[in-house]
């Protein structure tokens, strides 16, 4: 019997986008040795553990273990990191959903949406009904058979049930996500200069602080150093462009990387596999 010439990779991931679902992005992954560095997302990260268990740290303080069957919800701007809870690692599925989509799911009419912020106070949820609906929506998004109507219906129903049971409506952001003005200006400047490699001096000047004091303030309130924030924002943008079909080399140039290999190395740190592997099948 002919054997495979190459053993399966320890860490495998696949990313895709479904344009009929308000540009929601989906991830399916098997991680055995991969650990995520501290990072945040502009969207809601909603997912569930299929096998194994994941160790999860939120906002540099709260450490949780998510076994198989757990639903995970990460609010926009929440700093988090993850790693295998055991040597067996974990298999999971995630979806990245915009604030606008969650607002629609939570509201019974468009008139109810003004100024509402959807917030999930619990990052780990144990609810078989919600798990079943999220899983059905995720599997449906990956299949070529279902219509766009079926895909959007399944996702809307799943998000509606999740938000109905576990979300809070707020009109102000949680205090932990509100940045001082100087740090907010600096972060916005980094976002605006994502491809131009701004210097520490430039960013500190925007914040109106000395470079040393700016470094301390940024890390205190954002949870990572400015260069780490720049990297994770670039990787997040790269993910958006990859699932839209843009060539990796073109993305690397647009984001200010010296070459494609540099982007691939940083992308692998966050997703456990290179961009070319992640947008293909495993």
Automatic annotation (TrEMBL):
Does DNA-binding show up as a keyword for this record? Answer: yes
Molecular function as annotated in GO:
DNA-binding transcription factor activity; sequence-specific DNA binding
Start and end residues of each HTH araC/xylS-type domain: 184-281
Entry-linked PROSITE patterns: HTH_ARAC_FAMILY_1 (PS00041), HTH_ARAC_FAMILY_2 (PS01124)
Please give the superkingdom of this protein's source.
Bacteria
List the InterPro entries: AraC-bd, AraC_XylS_family_regulators, Homeodomain-like_sf, HTH-like, HTH_AraC, HTH_AraC-typ_CS, RmlC-like_jellyroll
UniProt keyword list:
Activator, DNA-binding, Transcription, Transcription regulation
- The protein's name: AraC-like DNA-binding protein
- Provide the organism lineage as a comma list: Bacteria, Pseudomonadati, Pseudomonadota, Betaproteobacteria, Burkholderiales
């Amino acid at each position: 019997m002919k054997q495979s010439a190459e053993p399966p990779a320890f860490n495998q991931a696949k990313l895709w986008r479904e344009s009929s679902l308000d540009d929601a992005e989906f991830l399916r992954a098997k991680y055995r040795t991969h650990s995520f560095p501290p990072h945040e997302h502009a969207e809601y990260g909603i997912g569930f553990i299929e096998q194994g268990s994941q160790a999860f740290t939120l906002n540099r303080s709260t450490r949780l273990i998510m076994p198989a069957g757990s639903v995970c919800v990460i609010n926009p701007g929440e700093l988090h990191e993850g790693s295998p809870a055991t040597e067996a690692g974990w298999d999971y599925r995630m979806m990245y959903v915009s604030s606008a989509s969650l607002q629609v799911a939570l509201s019974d009419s468009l008139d109810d949406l003004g100024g509402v912020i959807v917030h999930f106070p619990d990052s780990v949820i144990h609810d078989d009904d919600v798990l079943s609906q999220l899983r059905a929506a995720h599997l449906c998004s990956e299949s070529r058979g279902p219509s766009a109507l079926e895909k959007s219906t399944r996702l809307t129903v799943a998000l509606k049930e999740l938000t109905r049971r576990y979300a809070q409506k707020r009109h102000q952001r949680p205090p932990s996500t509100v940045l001082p003005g100087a740090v907010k200006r600096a972060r916005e400047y980094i976002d605006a200069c994502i491809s131009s490699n701004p210097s520490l001096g430039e960013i500190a000047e925007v914040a109106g602080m000395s470079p040393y004091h700016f470094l301390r303030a940024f890390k205190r309130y954002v949870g990572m150093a400015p260069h780490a924030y720049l990297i994770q924002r670039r990787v997040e943008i790269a993910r958006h462009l990859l699932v839209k079909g843009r060539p990796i080399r073109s993305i690397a140039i647009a984001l200010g990387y010296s070459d494609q290999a540099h982007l691939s190395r940083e992308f692998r740190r966050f997703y456990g596999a290179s961009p070319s592997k992640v947008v293909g099948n495993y």
